[in-house]
Structure prediction request, 201 residues.
Amino acid sequence: MGKLTAIFLAFSTVLPAAVTFQQRLGEARAQYFAVLQGNRAAAEKARSSFAALSRDYPGNAVVDAYTGSLELLDAARTWAIWDKRRLANEGLQKMDQAVNRAPSDLEARFIRAASAWHLPFFYKRREQAASDFTLIAPQAEAAAAKGTLPPELAAAALDYYGQVLIDRRDSHGAKQAFEAAARIDGASPGGRDALKRLRTE
Prediction:
């Protein structure tokens, strides 16, 4: 047994369940983002981790949002048209239910928005995603500082919001959003994209 595993097992017997949940969510979240970066091996791990979290914490909005997003990713990667449609619809429905259950949960809302942002037009989800980013953006920096939204997600939300504002021809507002994204976490994908957009202005 590795030293880190032993330490975790020792702590998990004395720490409250919420801390254990946060650690497990952090690991599952890392696997999810590894999938987005093209790590195919992480896909099965992410599905397994979120399935276990769903079983142990039924009805958790964040867990359900990630689970729905994974189904959407599966839909994008399958060649079977019947599976593609079913997985996409199930994934979107799961994310909608998660946000409806916990509308103030910024992480669940972000996962839905980011997952739907690049969907083909016939899903008619672009405006909903823009609305989600618009709701998250004013709260993102404070939520990252409080630890209720991971900094890399807060930065990504503001980077997306900047793109929403560009679509609305609000270049000043977009610049402020990109600056906030870079300030929160300039090393994250969202922060790096925001910095790149600032340099090209």
